């Protein structure tokens, strides 16, 4: 059974038009208190892929890619702003939805008021899951570090939707033009890098993609880049043993210690 994790569904305070008036008021207040004043036009931002994917959009992408309702999905995020109204379309498509609260039987996460334990659980589940899908790749250390960590752990599968390419497809769907929707989504997603090695291009962070600097090579041009042998620990032990037996001072010290112990 495949396990898929998703992160970032709560990052909407810069794209507030999808919320009702009361919710917009809360988000505007939050934005004013925490960010510099900036002209933000929802339709313009969304058209260029600057808005996070909604839960429904995430569900539609996964469905178009062939994931069905038996897929187990772990949502690594805080409580979704807007609540069940936004989550229902996603849950209808993928009912096997979990988060760190639903998987905790000890209630330890509930009593952890700092929230750090829940974040740690989120991180480890995302790191070890079959597939990881961040829905927003803005300034998030959580998502960026996970992308790099999963890359370093053997190029684990990651789905990174191209929001800019997907935006006109979703806008057409909202305007009633639904013909060929799933095929259009698939065409975009087929161009996506699914966690394989790729050269880092600015502004991609080193922490998100440390290839090739932090990776060894099977057939390197520079011997220093060569991967260690599979039995590297045995080789190191053998070298250490040879060094001890070939070094007169070390051998004399070892013999002296042995006599003292006797």
TrEMBL record:
<protein>
    <recommendedName>
        <fullName>O-fucosyltransferase family protein</fullName>
    </recommendedName>
</protein>
<keyword id="KW-0472">Membrane</keyword>
<keyword id="KW-0328">Glycosyltransferase</keyword>
<keyword id="KW-0735">Signal-anchor</keyword>
<feature type="region of interest" description="Disordered">
    <location>
        <begin position="238"/>
        <end position="262"/>
    </location>
</feature>
<dbReference type="GO" id="GO:0016020">
    <property type="term" value="C:membrane"/>
</dbReference>
<keyword id="KW-0325">Glycoprotein</keyword>
<comment type="pathway">
    <text>Glycan metabolism.</text>
</comment>
<dbReference type="InterPro" id="IPR019378">
    <property type="entry name" value="GDP-Fuc_O-FucTrfase"/>
</dbReference>
<dbReference type="Pfam" id="PF10250">
    <property type="entry name" value="O-FucT"/>
</dbReference>
<dbReference type="GO" id="GO:0006004">
    <property type="term" value="P:fucose metabolic process"/>
</dbReference>
<dbReference type="GO" id="GO:0005802">
    <property type="term" value="C:trans-Golgi network"/>
</dbReference>
<dbReference type="GO" id="GO:0016757">
    <property type="term" value="F:glycosyltransferase activity"/>
</dbReference>
<feature type="compositionally biased region" description="Polar residues">
    <location>
        <begin position="247"/>
        <end position="262"/>
    </location>
</feature>
<keyword id="KW-0808">Transferase</keyword>
<keyword id="KW-0119">Carbohydrate metabolism</keyword>
<keyword id="KW-0294">Fucose metabolism</keyword>
<keyword id="KW-0812">Transmembrane</keyword>
<comment type="similarity">
    <text>Belongs to the glycosyltransferase GT106 family.</text>
</comment>
<dbReference type="GO" id="GO:0005768">
    <property type="term" value="C:endosome"/>
</dbReference>
<keyword id="KW-1133">Transmembrane helix</keyword>
């Amino acid at each position: 059974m495949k396990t898929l994790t998703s992160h970032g569904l709560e990052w909407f305070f810069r794209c507030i038009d999808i919320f009702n008036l009361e919710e917009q008021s809360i988000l505007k207040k939050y934005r004013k208190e925490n960010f510099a004043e900036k002209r933000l036009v929802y339709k313009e931002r969304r058209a260029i892929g600057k808005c996070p994917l909604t839960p429904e959009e995430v569900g539609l992408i996964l469905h178009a890619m062939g994931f069905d309702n038996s897929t187990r999905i772990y949502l690594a995020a805080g409580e979704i702003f807007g609540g069940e109204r936004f989550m229902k379309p996603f849950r209808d498509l993928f009912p096997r939805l979990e988060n760190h609260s639903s998987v905790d039987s000890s209630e330890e996460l509930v009593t952890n008021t700092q929230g750090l334990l829940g974040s740690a659980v989120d991180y480890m589940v995302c790191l070890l899951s079959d597939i990881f899908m961040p829905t927003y790749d803005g300034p998030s250390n959580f998502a960026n570090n996970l992308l790099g960590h999963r890359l370093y752990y053997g190029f684990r599968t990651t789905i990174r939707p191209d929001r800019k390419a997907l935006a006109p497809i979703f806008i057409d769907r909202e305007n009633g033009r639904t013909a060929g929707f799933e095929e259009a989504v698939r065409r975009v997603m087929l161009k996506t890098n699914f966690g394989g090695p790729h050269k880092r291009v600015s502004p991609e962070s080193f922490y998100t993609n440390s290839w090739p600097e932090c990776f060894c090579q099977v057939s390197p041009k520079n011997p220093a880049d060569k991967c260690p042998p599979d039995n590297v620990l045995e080789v190191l032990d053998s070298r250490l043993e040879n060094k001890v037996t070939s070094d007169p001072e070390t051998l004399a010290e070892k013999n002296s210690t042995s006599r003292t112990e006797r």
